């Protein structure tokens, strides 16, 4: 059997505007996926329009552009999973992070750690996802490199190991000095899209440094020496355990440090890791094909009901045409036209390996959290639904459209875009979302895809918890709180609280009931 190329499956986490899109483009550019480079930037309608030419997308009416981007460099296959970049945190982002083995954290050199970076970092930490840091925009005036490194170290409680050092920033910027190889990367004067020229030096004492850095040569020497002495040296093991972050300075816009980032990912980012599952974690070396759905994306075309389920392969060698079993239902699914996300093109996949993502077109059978297996049942864990932070009642513009509304809400709940609760009393559905933006997306999709005019009105409830416990206790609790009870789309009981005070009060009093802010699909 042929040995698959090494895989690196990762995501980029950042605060909006730090440069994620630019870095993504450049990674694809250096990864040999040149024509994607201009396309990642196209946003909204534009992005959809551009991707329309892609055959499979056209046939299916689904745009999957830039959800997953695969590129290859130096014999390593990189799967870059896109996380939505908006301020609101979404469940989608969290779930995407369940499907990666590592993350690249992009920080703006002038701004340091920002709110969204931190939030996403915490999610990575929860799952022990190792992080490589890219301090971007050194071509502009930025903060002092030491200050930035100390901030990362203090705020995130991580050891930092700088791999390179900027010779000046902004107008003074002379290039990047690689602290390990002593190579100096200097701008070659041709502007954007030029990687610069590499000069091999013998170290900081090399007289070439004077020629390269002019008046700031001594500063580079002093700072780099201080950095080498004052910060941790790279320990790949500590990094993979999530205790240390290697740091690269660079400029995505000017192509500086991007190749070094790819090389660093290839050199020490983890290969596909064992995936948490029941009855036991699935090793990438297990022979049976298994994987889990971490994202479902609906069509952009209202005429089609097709979806694409994104399956992370956890083990085995997947071959096109295979039948996999959906563990939750026992149903066998023939996967005849999986989509492989080579950035050059959407290709029909012939085979995929652990760490790879395949897109499976389906009519709504596959759901977020689904485990698919070739032979023996395993249930992947840790792909949660999150208790919504915003609950809203849905008000229909045209009362004759209630059937369409129900279909639409169910569809979107299955995609994992929203959660849908049916109160035990009353007939109005309650939708739950984790962030405000999701409500806006919901309204516009209801109109565009389902021709349903709807609005949201405040619900008396603010937050919800799944409940579990001894059946008799559970029944008593539900009877006592009928007005605040609902069922989720799988019929699981949900307690809705008016505010956090009430939630606190009830959870403390009801010791026989387990309240849970997340629910994994059984
Ligand atoms: P995001 O996806 O993280 O939100 O960030 P994006 O890449 O869109 O970058 C945000 C802005 O920062 C863009 O400028 C982009 O050109 C700029 N930028 C990204 N990387 C660098 C860098 O290394 N150096 C400098 N100087 N700028 C960088 P914009 O004006 O908002 O957009 P555009 O008009 O350039 O497209």
TrEMBL record:
GO terms for cellular component: cytosol. The keyword GTP-binding applies. One of its GO terms (biological process) is regulation of translational termination. GTP binds at residues 14-21, 82-86, 136-139. Its main location: cytoplasm. It is found in: Cytoplasm. Gene3D superfamilies: P-loop containing nucleotide triphosphate hydrolases, Peptide chain release factor 3, domain III, Translation factors. Keywords: Cytoplasm, GTP-binding, Nucleotide-binding, Protein biosynthesis. Residues 5-273 form the Tr-type G domain. NCBIfam families: prfC, PRK00741.1, small_GTP. HAMAP family: Rel_fac_3. PANTHER family: PEPTIDE CHAIN RELEASE FACTOR RF3. Increases the formation of ribosomal termination complexes and stimulates activities of RF-1 and RF-2. It binds guanine nucleotides and has strong preference for UGA stop codons. It may interact directly with the ribosome. The stimulation of RF-1 and RF-2 is significantly reduced by GTP and GDP, but not by GMP. Belongs to the TRAFAC class translation factor GTPase superfamily. Classic translation factor GTPase family. PrfC subfamily. This is Peptide chain release factor 3.
């Amino acid at each position: 059997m042929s040995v698959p190329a090494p895989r690196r499956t990762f995501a980029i986490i950042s605060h909006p505007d730090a440069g994620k899109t630019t870095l993504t483009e450049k990674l694809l550019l250096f990864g040999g996926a040149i024509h994607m480079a201009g396309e990642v930037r196209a946003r909204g309608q534009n992005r959809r329009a551009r991707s329309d030419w892609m055959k499979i997308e056209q046939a299916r009416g689904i745009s999957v552009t830039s959800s997953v981007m695969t590129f290859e460099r130096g014999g390593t296959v990189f799967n870059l999973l896109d996380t939505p970049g908006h301020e609101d945190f979404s469940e989608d982002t969290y779930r995407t992070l369940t499907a990666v083995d590592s993350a690249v954290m992009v920080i703006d050199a002038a701004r340091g750690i920002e709110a969204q970076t931190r939030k996403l970092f915490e999610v990575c930490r929860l799952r022990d996802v190792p992080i490589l840091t890219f301090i971007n925009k050194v071509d502009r005036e930025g903060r002092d490199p030491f200050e930035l490194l100390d901030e990362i170290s203090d705020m995130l409680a991580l050891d930092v190991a700088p791999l390179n050092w900027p010779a000046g920033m902004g107008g003074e910027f002379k290039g990047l000095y690689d602290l390990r190889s002593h190579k100096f990367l200097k701008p070659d004067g041709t502007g954007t899209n030029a990687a610069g020229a590499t000069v091999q030096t013998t170290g900081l004492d090399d007289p070439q440094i004077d020629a390269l850095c002019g008046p700031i040569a001594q500063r580079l020497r002093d700072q780099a020496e201080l950095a080498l002495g004052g910060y941790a040296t790279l320990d790949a093991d500590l990094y993979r355990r999530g205790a240390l972050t290697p740091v690269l300075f660079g400029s995505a816009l000017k192509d500086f440090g991007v190749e070094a980032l790819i090389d660093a990912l290839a050199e020490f980012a983890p290969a596909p890791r064992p995936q948490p599952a029941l009855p036991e974690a699935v090793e990438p070396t297990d022979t049976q094909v298994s994987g889990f759905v971490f994202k479902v994306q609906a069509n952009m075309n209202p005429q089609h009901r097709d979806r694409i389920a994104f399956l992370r392969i956890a083990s085995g060698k997947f071959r096109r045409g295979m039948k996999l079993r959906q563990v939750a239902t026992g149903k066998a699914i023939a996967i005849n036209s999986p989509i492989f996300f080579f950035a050059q093109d959407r290709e029909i996949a012939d085979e995929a390996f652990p760490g790879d993502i395949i897109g499976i077109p389906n009519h709504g059978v596959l759901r977020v959290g689904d485990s698919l297996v070739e032979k023996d049942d395993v249930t992947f864990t840790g792909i949660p639904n999150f208790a919504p932070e915003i609950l809203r009642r849905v008000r229909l513009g045209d009362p004759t459209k209630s059937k369409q509304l129900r279909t639409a809400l169910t569809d979107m709940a299955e995609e994992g875009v929203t959660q849908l609760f049916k109160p035990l009393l009353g007939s109005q559905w309650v939708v739950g979302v984790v962030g405000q933006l999701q409500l806006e997306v919901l309204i516009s999709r209801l109109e565009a895809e389902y021709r349903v005019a709807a609005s949201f009105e405040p619900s008396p409830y603010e937050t919800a918890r799944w409940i579990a416990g001894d059946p008799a206790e559970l029944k008593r609790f539900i009877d006592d709180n009928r007005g605040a009870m609902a069922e989720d789309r799988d019929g699981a009981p949900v307690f809705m609280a008016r505010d956090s005070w009430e939630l606190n009060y009830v959870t403390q009093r009801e010791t026989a009931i387990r309240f849970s802010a997340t629910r994994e699909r059984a």
